[in-house]
Amino acid sequence: MAKQLETDVVVVAAGLSGLAAAISAAENGASVIALEKASNTGGAANMGMGPCAAGSPVQKASMIEVTPGELFRRHMFYTHYQVDPRLVRAYYFKSGDTIQWLMDMGVKFNSVRPAFRARERTRAYADGEYTWHVVQPEDGSEPGPRAATTMTKRMTERAQALGVEFMFETPGKELITNDEGAVTGVKAVDKNGEEIDITAKAVIVATGGFGANAKMIKDYIGLDWGKNLYSFAVPGMDGDGFNMCHKVGAGHTPVTMEMMYQLPDNMNHFYVEGGFRQPCYWCDRNGERFMPEDDIFNTTFVGNAINHLPGKVGFSIFDSKMLKHWKKDGPDIVSHVHPKDLYQGFEEQFARDEDTYLDGDGNHVIAKADTLEELAEKIGIDPDGLVKNVEEYNAMCAEGWDSLFEKEREFMMPLENGPFYACRQYVGAYGTLGGVLINQRMEVMTDEYKTIPGLYCVGTDACTIYGDSYNYSIPGNTMGFCLNSGRIAGENAAALSMESASDDEWD
Asked: How many CB atoms lie within 10 A of CB 8?
């Protein structure tokens, strides 16, 4: 017989959205049990740097005037109104207060940043907003990947102080419903295999999508993980909550991914990957350029572009003169993620991996050669096509005008001085977005837009605010939505539990 537990609110998973939901519910008077498949909290957020917000005290202190209403309009224009405006509005108008909420827990923010600054001619429609609240690591170091672990740590401490009961290595397996279809609890299994039935007045699903489930990615998105798609694939993000919600009648929404571009196993090739993210010469496997290279700072744009290339692979190429320039003057496009001394470690890492870093067909993922023909053969580009197109590009560089894509003149550097360097660029993704239909209160709805009583869904399981593309011009958006959807769900779940308790008293 299954072990029986009872609480007001069950949160399924303790990543960023689950932590926010658990804290919010507990702050509003509910008893909370948080189930977590892993042995710690934070999930994918532990790989991030910080959330999006508008109208926060950090922005105001820096004299950054970005209002929730402005972001709402910009976001809706970006999506062409393919998404729920009430849901988007609820998120942005909560976001500034959420930063103060985090600061009250002891979270410190290093700065508010845009992910990029667009070129002057594209600024009106492509510029990055100052919305990315980058977390200050507790050791005082410069923020980088995983900076947000400090935030999830503070949130975990706050949840524990409020009495939230964490049950680690105990994944939720199935939602419990009554005869009317309302959700009344969760079935779980602990690390010893013991079955647990938890009765609750509300359940909040926050399992983070299915970015580590290759079959679901293939079925829902059509990409082959490990072949034409690479992602962070955070262990445990297998679609548990996604499937649990749909099993009890949750409505379906389109599923997208946070497209970007990357190398396989990119964290082990950090300098190499960063070194090639420059406005050099970018082409497809036929040697043809496919975008103005001064747009490569926008990872969503590039990921989308590569996804539509033959074989879903692109190539970035530069020559020894460009490398000398970057080593002396620094990168042309500075990343918030990669270190400023990028090219001090580039050649050493390149030499380490050049001969062994191969794809499944035996092509070099990175390559170096004295001629373009030899380079093309190594990396899997048509040699004749590459030579022909590079000659045309070099002629444009000599003229000082990109007649094909109007690339900014300052980046028009010819490929002419060997050795030449190349890197295969694949479609990448941070994870999946959406699938479960919700309203602005984070209540799960059926395909007929009727709410399922007692059931809420938050974070990337329900993040259907992007249409077909992640809005990279408003950075920090995924973490921002996770935090704020969690807070909103926690408040509403607590209110529902209090209402249920009051009803019980009258029965």
From this structure: 22
Q: 439 with 244: CB under 8 angstroms?
A: no
What is the identity of the amino acid at 108?
K
Q: For tokens 């921002």, what's the residue?
A: 480
Amino acid identity, position 433? L
Indicate the SS3 state at residue 471: coil
Other Cβ atoms less than 10 A from the Cβ of 180: the count is: 7
Query: Residue 38 corresponds to which tokens in the numbers above?
Result: 């892993």
Closest CA to 476 of 111, 217, 87: 111
Give the separation between CA 414 and CA 199, rounded to whole angstroms: 67
What does the pLDDT look like over 445-502, one tens digit per residue? Answer: 999 999 999 999 999 999 889 888 888 889 999 999 999 999 999 999 999 998 876 6
User: CA-to-CA distance for 388 and 288, rounded, in angstroms?
Assistant: 9
Instruction: For CA atoms 183, 460, 21, 198, give the dihedral sign.
Output: positive
pLDDT tens column, 127-170: 788 999 999 998 888 887 788 999 999 999 999 999 999 999 99
List C-alpha distances in Å: 324 to 319, 320, 321. Answer: 9, 6, 5
From residue 210, alpha-carbon distances to 207, 237, 450 in Å are: 8, 5, 25
The greatest distance separating any two alpha carbons of the chain, rounded to the nearest whole angstrom, comes to 85
Kind and range of the H or E run holding 385: helix 383-399
Structural tokens at position 93? 């108008």
Among the listed residues 448, 340, 466, 460, the one whose alpha carbon sits nearest the alpha carbon of residue 48: 460
Q: Is the pLDDT of residue 419 over 90?
A: yes
This prediction has a pTM of: 0.93
Residue ranges of domains in the chain, CATH in brackets: 3-196+234-255+434-495 (3.50.50.60), 259-428 (3.90.700.10)
Q: What is the DSSP string of 490-507?
A: HHHHHHHHHHHHHHHHH-
Cβ contact 373:420 at 8 Å? no
Separation of CA 437 from chain center: 20
Residue 378: Cβ-neighbour burial (10 angstroms; 0-12, 13-18, 19+): middle
Residues 276, 474, 425: CA angle, nearest 5 degrees: 20
For residue 307, how many C-alpha atoms fall within 13 Å in the half-sphere facing its CB? 24
Residue 132 φ/ψ, nearest 5 degrees: -85, 105
User: Strand runs (DSSP E) across 128-267, as ranges?
Assistant: 132-135, 165-168, 172-177, 183-189, 195-199, 202-205, 230-231, 256-262
Q: What does each C-alpha distance from 190 to 11, 13, 193, 345 come to in angstroms?
A: 15, 13, 5, 45
Which residue from 104, 77, 102, 75 is spatially nearest to 90, judged by alpha carbons? 75
Q: Say if CB 238 and CB 212 are below 8 A apart.
A: yes
